[in-house]
Amino acid sequence: MTTGLQFPLQRLATGLLLLLSVQHWAESGKVLVLPTDGSHWLSMREVVQELHSRGHQAVVLTPEVNMHIKEEDFFTLTTYAIPCTQDEFNHLLLSHTQLFFETEHFLKKFSRSMEILKNMSLVAHGACVELLHNETLIRHLNATSFDVVLTDPVYLCGPVLAKYLSIPTVFFLRYIPCDLDFKGTQCPNPYSYVPKLLTMNSEHMTFLQRVKNMLYPLALSYICHAFSAPFASLASELFQRAVPVVDILSHASVWLSDFVKDFPRPIMPNMIFLAGINCLLKNPLSQEFEGYINASGEHGIVVFSLGSMVSEIPEKKAMEIAAALGKIPQTVLWRYTGTRPSNLANNTILVKWLPQNDLLGHPKTRAFITHSGSHGIYEGICNGVPMVMMPLFGDQMDNAKRMETKGAGVTLNVLEMTSEDLENALKAVINDRSYKENIMRLSSLHKDRPVEPLDLAVFWIEFVMRHKGAPHLRPAAHDLTWYQYHSLDVIGFLLAIVLTVAFIAFKCCACGCRKCCGKKGRVKKAQKSKTH
Amino acid sequence: MTTGLQFPLQRLATGLLLLLSVQHWAESGKVLVLPTDGSHWLSMREVVQELHSRGHQAVVLTPEVNMHIKEEDFFTLTTYAIPCTQDEFNHLLLSHTQLFFETEHFLKKFSRSMEILKNMSLVAHGACVELLHNETLIRHLNATSFDVVLTDPVYLCGPVLAKYLSIPTVFFLRYIPCDLDFKGTQCPNPYSYVPKLLTMNSEHMTFLQRVKNMLYPLALSYICHAFSAPFASLASELFQRAVPVVDILSHASVWLSDFVKDFPRPIMPNMIFLAGINCLLKNPLSQEFEGYINASGEHGIVVFSLGSMVSEIPEKKAMEIAAALGKIPQTVLWRYTGTRPSNLANNTILVKWLPQNDLLGHPKTRAFITHSGSHGIYEGICNGVPMVMMPLFGDQMDNAKRMETKGAGVTLNVLEMTSEDLENALKAVINDRSYKENIMRLSSLHKDRPVEPLDLAVFWIEFVMRHKGAPHLRPAAHDLTWYQYHSLDVIGFLLAIVLTVAFIAFKCCACGCRKCCGKKGRVKKAQKSKTH
């Protein structure tokens, strides 16, 4: 159905189309980019590169201590100091990923997890305070006259700064916890069929799943408050008035996101969906990887990576995994930087890094073992590769559940699974044709769209620059109180009228009846007294 | 900002892009088109023409008695008999438009209006019965193996037939009364900021306007029931089970519509917006019209049309209008087939038909006098021409209100206005620069989009053909009851638990207190008796 030529041609056509938008936007724009570190930066980076190639100037503003955001030739990097050294930062991240594999008691693990989260929040908040109180930098940013701010709102410092600088803003996000996306866009969010983050519910829920769907956000509200309140205080301090988080987020003109992964639900006109922005661009494989694939014979290969955050795991778990991998005929390319498991079979090759999307795009790739992060899931879908999913944290559990619901893969609990579980899961997704068919169907739906996501992202950023925001896409709901939004005042007013009318009618009837009865009574009495 | 070359180039690019979709869709598709007559057909006709030019075969199925749907070379016309002659049909339509200008008492006019509506409904329903009971035709349609049905759901017969034939369906609509679009797509519909049809509210409403917004749908529910119930009965008879209207409408895979004209509000992922599909294609003006424009001098022209339904008006009103038109220095091109008003000034030219969009696109056009139908409004916006609006019926009042709110025109009540009102309105929109600036801003926002609406329409129709529907865009809300949708069962359950726990806690406390007090009481009593 799809030819190899089609996608390059499609890119060419959308490129031509968007080139006309650049023509439309006569001068080059100035874009202030406030990214969120980690894998979030990976897709935003591609958008910044595309903006540069269309003649815009991007300034990327980031803490001097970070993971992936380094100097590149398509943007100007501006850093600011934060109250944390690179070592402390790395240690914090490592403790977060290591904690996952520790087999402590749930409550102890939860309390340590909360502690790490609190420390991370402190660092994030501290960095934001440093940034917003850096008067020289703020003056410089004000003087630069940026046309648009591009930021990932999962780190709320970007939205606060954008609002403070009063620059039209585009949010670029993968997901945001605590339903802040719904709140910030005034988007309806029915609990009955929109599965909440971390519930692992699908859109079709049983009664008890719907109860869970309603209780989860309540249970998480403490964490949500801890996550967002410091930034609301910071904004309130800057603006010298109470600024709730929703106000900070509602400053955005357009939300470019891939957070609606699968289940159809209400959206707003300023939400633009770019799912899979990362899997369009492909590079040829290096000789090393071509070699592995050619040597794999008719059985082909399996790609295995637990994402950019996790590159090593406890030895015992690694050995269990290695044992399972040794029992399939495919060659396994495993991104792993830890100690080599002693039982590693000949078919398994450890690599420090792998070109994940390019490998998944190879016709000899039979399966993908993934932690089911957003990027990985979309690369699996784009390339039509069935998945064995080992979700670790965040939205990964939900992602895995969604793929499993669609019959495109198998989910394993990496802590509890045995070697046999992994072996069986791999054999199932490789040999049972239904997994391949389901992922191919998803792939063909996903790739069938009128505009490529990268072009769409750039279109909307330029749109906001051209029109100095997008006030025509801002719903009037932002200007209503919660009771006005739900028409409670109108309902109360109408109810009061109905009740008043009913009361008066009742009183009139009662009075009429009394008069009538009274008259009759009097008449009867009179008649009685006459007859007596 | 925009060059003359840009839009043809943009069409070329989107054309190339969509051509790739055709490549994607290897064979040509068979499209069954069930249009709604009148101006609704005018934009659907363009989509059918585009489908034909991309290699698809379209069969247009329509009653043999109709207004505008005639044989053309880009589709096969199939007609079916209806229980009404062309004369009766024309008379019915004429009585509808004539009624508007009659100056009877409101109640009398309302009752006549209801009678005409009832007669129209009877004809529409009768036609549908004829179609659905025409066994030969239904057999033929079944045998043809259509890939997709394209229909305008404002005439509910199309959706009923589509569901009956079990063919994936795309709705193409301009507007649909009684919030059936919200119901059919399970789209949330907040009363607090989404203005209801006929209320003439804007998105920013006062308290009383919000009360009106809530009461209007209640008041119109009788008419809504009369409009839709006959088709629900027809469907129930066909399917041998109760089929509510929402079920008929929820059969559609994709809704291509321009019914979100302006105010941002919740939408669903299968709603695709194509506003202004009719104003992209332009033809050169004929010598006759070029002549009028050239002769108009520096003052330019004013275009005046009350739409395809109304081409003549009562003589007195026509004379009032003619008097006003004579007082402006512009040349007025007036589409009018009635008797020539005796006071017609030299600057006013009566024509039986005019190329509205081409004239509005001419740089010498200063203003547009319109009944503010959907097509006219968009042609005004696309071409950036300020408007004097004289809404007559249907959604026209709302359209006019929306343009007025945005400062792009002036609304007049055609029954109550004086000659001076029209003169002043015309002079205002022509001489007050703010009207031109506002409509130009609207125009630039409206035309700035990543894909042209005609291409988008064709893309989604082909998408539904390629994937045999779009079940991945169907929200799970369709499978919930109303109380499940609003989580009333979950809320009730949780409330019951909270109340039970509170009740038990209260009882335990009360019991504890009693025991405690009882003991104390007994102790006190014992102490008392000892001391005594």
From TrEMBL, chains A, B:
Keywords: Endoplasmic reticulum, Glycoprotein, Glycosyltransferase, Membrane, Signal, Transferase, Transmembrane, Transmembrane helix
Residues spanning the membrane: 490-510
Record GO terms (molecular function): enzyme binding; glucuronosyltransferase activity; protein heterodimerization activity; protein homodimerization activity
Chief subcellular location: endoplasmic reticulum
Chemical reaction(s) catalysed: glucuronate acceptor + UDP-alpha-D-glucuronate = acceptor beta-D-glucuronoside + UDP + H(+)
Signal peptide extent: 1-28
Annotated family: Belongs to the UDP-glycosyltransferase family.
Full protein name: UDP-glucuronosyltransferase
Gene source species: Saimiri boliviensis boliviensis (Bolivian squirrel monkey)
